[in-house]
Write a structure and sequence with these properties.
The protein contains 15 helices and 14 strands. By secondary structure, the protein is of the alpha/beta class. Strands 5-4-3-2-1-6-8-7 form an eight-stranded mixed beta sheet, sandwiched between helices. The structure holds adenosine-5'-diphosphate.
Length: about 400
């Protein structure tokens, strides 16, 4: 069965068509600037040439129509008819407390996702628009929702509650939810497979280090803590997000800069993190690494701040689980930046970790980078959220 995986943002839409049995990627692409002049679609059938086309996409339905046309096109298409698409898997950012697992989408589920809009006002409405557009164009094809928050729903109360009046949780569901759950789940399962160990027997720390970054602790097959919170702003220092800070800073800065809370939150989301620490130099670790190696103070400051926070969370989660068997690195930085991995691991000698420099020099592939003698294993595992969504979708509709 072929599964269409859709990741719908407010003005963009990423898609992949995956054969669920062979797990082969059949085609993938991206629609950009939906609803904005200058929209364009990129489409790449497996083994074929990448096609970039300027196309008018006034809304998401138009974008999905173009995607379906491209997939079934006589010349560049990969299916003869849309009947060859057995199901659609949708990435959904926030499932609140309603979804601890993926689910087949019906009207009731749509309503429950809509009820979470408050918690992810930039993402969930866009996800819903994508689902509605697909349902309109493929009314007989089953749709599945796969939630970024679902994997973390196993966290115990002590990990997900904030130290604020309990009624805020009762009345407004203010709590830690966590994100990147599909990635944390995929990587932790893959780590157990690669080590030849039972998933339920391991204590794992997964470092998803991309532009958005989060760490999770997975103990005996369950996520027990994660660094992102009610929103993705909490936790690590990220590309442009501040991560953890004293909440009193917000009012203090509002006064000093004569800005509203909304404006300061915008700064914390978009102008902070390593971008802010490097005085606006870059949010991209490729640039920062060059700056670091060139002895530039802003890049050194940003890199050191980022590494320190990762080390701190690994320490905290080791304490939470009373030990750790394996630490995994994934996402853009985790998969590709051997310098960051090495620097983080240099602070983990207390876990009996030694790094094999030659293995650590590899990028973008599954590799054990800890030495044979290491008490705690360290793995690099490229994440594959689309494949994970296709698997979850297939499991529910087959
Ligand atoms: P997101 O999906 O959150 O937007 P990514 O997982 O793509 O982010 O990660 C982006 C970060 O990963 C950037 O800081 C970038 O420097 C780093 N990165 C991505 N690809 C590479 C690569 N091939 N080599 C080195 N660094 C990379």
């Amino acid at each position: 069965m072929n599964i269409l995986v859709i990741n719908c943002g407010s003005s963009s839409l990423k898609f992949q068509l995956i054969n669920a049995q062979s797990e082969e990627l059949i085609a993938k692409g991206l629609c950009e600037r939906i609803g904005i002049p200058g929209s364009q679609m990129t489409y790449a059938p497996k083994g074929g040439e990448k096609i970039e086309k300027a196309e008018d996409m006034p809304d998401h339905t138009a974008a999905i129509r173009l995607v379906l046309n491209a997939l079934s096109d006589e010349k560049h298409g990969v299916v003869k008819s849309l009947d060859e698409i057995g199901a659609v898997g949708h990435r959904i950012v926030h499932g609140g407390e309603s979804f601890a697992a993926s689910t087949v989408i019906n009207d009731e589920v749509m309503k429950a996702i809509e009820d979470c809009n408050d918690l992810a006002p930039l993402h969930n409405p866009a996800n819903l628009i994508g689902i509605n557009a697909c349902r309109k164009l493929m009314p007989d094809t089953p749709m599945v929702g796969v939630f970024d928050t679902a994997f973390h729903q196993t966290m115990p109360e002590r990990a997900y509650l904030y130290g604020i009046p309990y009624r805020y949780y009762e009345d407004y569901k203010v709590r830690r939810y966590g994100f990147h759950g599909t990635s944390h789940s995929y990587v932790s399962h893959r780590a157990a497979e690669l080590l030849g160990r039972e998933y339920e027997d391991l204590k794992m720390i997964v470092c998803h280090l991309g532009n958005g970054a989060s760490i999770s602790a997975v103990q005996n097959g369950k996520c027990v803590d994660t660094s992102m919170g009610l929103t993705p702003l909490e936790g690590l220092i990220m590309g442009t997000r501040s991560g953890d800070l004293d909440p009193a800073i917000i009012e203090f800065l509002c006064g000093k800069e004569e800005k509203t809370v909304h404006e300061i939150l915008n700064v914390l989301n978009k102008e902070s993190g390593v971008l802010g620490l490097s005085e606006g130099y870059s949010s991209d670790f490729r640039d920062l690494e060059k700056g670091y190696n060139g002895g530039e103070a802003p890049s050194i400051r940003a890199m050191n701040g980022f590494i320190y926070r990762v080390v701190k969370y690994i320490g905290a989660y080791t304490a939470v689980m009373n030990g750790v068997d394996v630490i995994c690195f994934t996402a853009g930085i985790g998969e590709n930046n051997s310098f960051i991995r090495k620097e983080v691991c240099a602070h983990l000698a207390y876990l009996g970790i030694g790094i094999d420099e030659e293995e650590n020099a590899k990028r973008g592939e599954e590799v054990l980078i800890s030495t044979k003698e290491s008490r705690t294993k360290v793995l690099v595992i490229p994440t594959n959220e689309e494949l994970a969504i296709a698997r979850e979708t297939f499991a529910l509709v087959k």
